[in-house]
Design a protein that fits this description.
globular, 6-stranded mixed sheet, 296 residues, alpha/beta, 11 helices
Length: 296
């Protein structure tokens, strides 16, 4: 009796001609030359919808017609070799690419049905409050732990008085799993914390402004294994409230923390699907090559 993944593989590869598929170890895979995304890009009731997104740096195209939905209350991992476009795509989701003068983005990205690149969205500050970002290297402000968290709510007018601000700071630090470690050090510099604590501080800072989506660009690459494990546990807890998009070079991490995985290669979204399926029975030969270590 065939298992569900074998049936799914046959269903997907059946859409391609013999020239577009190849057989490896008794399985039909979409061939390396094929660049159309394999897998279901859509989800029910998405938080973010991306359609035919391309990115150009001057005359050089870095991303090619990427279409993908980001689900609510789910972690989607983006994997692929260096320079494949996964971080470039991530930065499109809160318009961080706007900070690069020669960068141009085409296609459509909507959040809850609103086009985030529409002219009416020229002020990106509210967007970046809704779509928070945690970077590869912890980057706390040169302020106290308290002020690191309080800064966002202050500029967005989320607190009417000091009592409300105190509550936001405490709640955010608790959600980030940091409150017990810093509750007696709130007035000390955030830069004095350990690397793992600084990264959790940055996560607390991102969630203090009540985002709907959290973007993470290799958030554990500069951390030790113990700090990495705490961040991964935190990602699992936060996914109950937020949509989370994580870029990672670690396939093991993607397998541990995500429910869906998207594989990028040379600017193309090659395959997207359930994380277990991507890492056990991929449908595209390039995905198979990457997860089995043929390149990376």
């Amino acid at each position: 009796m065939r298992d569900e993944y074998s049936a799914a593989t046959e269903e997907i590869t059946g859409h391609f001609s013999e020239n577009e598929s190849t057989e490896i170890r008794g399985r039909q895979l979409v061939s390396r030359d094929h660049r159309k995304t394999v897998g279901d890009i859509k989800v029910d009731n998405p938080r973010i919808q991306c359609r035919d997104v391309s990115v150009f740096y001057a005359d050089k195209q870095a991303l090619f017609n990427v279409s993908l939905d980001i689900a609510r209350n789910e972690v989607i991992a983006m994997i692929g070799p260096s320079g494949c476009g996964k971080s470039t795509f991530l930065r499109c989701l809160n318009r961080m690419n706007d900070t690069i003068d020669i960068c141009r983005v085409t296609g459509q990205i909507t959040m809850d049905g609103v086009d985030i690149y529409a002219r009416a969205m020229d002020d990106v500050v509210p967007l970046r409050a809704k779509v928070g970002m945690v970077f590869q290297k912890p980057n706390p402000f040169p302020k106290s732990v308290y002020d690191n968290i309080a800064y966002g709510p202050k500029i967005h007018g989320l607190a009417n008085n000091r009592c409300e601000l105190d509550e936001i700071v405490e709640t955010s630090l608790k959600k980030a799993g940091l409150w017990k470690e810093v509750k007696d050090r709130l007035n000390l510099p955030g830069t004095g914390l350990s690397g793992g604590q600084q990264q959790r501080l940055c996560i607390a800072r991102a969630i203090a402004v009540s985002p709907e989506v959290i973007l993470m660009d290799e958030p554990c690459s500069a951390l030790d294994p113990i700090a990495t494990a705490r961040i991964e546990d935190l990602i699992d807890e936060l996914s109950r409230q937020y949509a989370i998009v994580i870029v990672t070079h670690s396939m093991q991490q993607a397998a541990r923390v995500s429910q869906r995985t998207a594989y990028f290669h040379l600017g193309y979204l090659i395959e997207v699907g359930d994380t277990k399926q991507i890492f056990t029975i991929p449908h595209h030969q390039l995905t198979e090559d990457y997860i089995t270590g043929r390149f990376g």
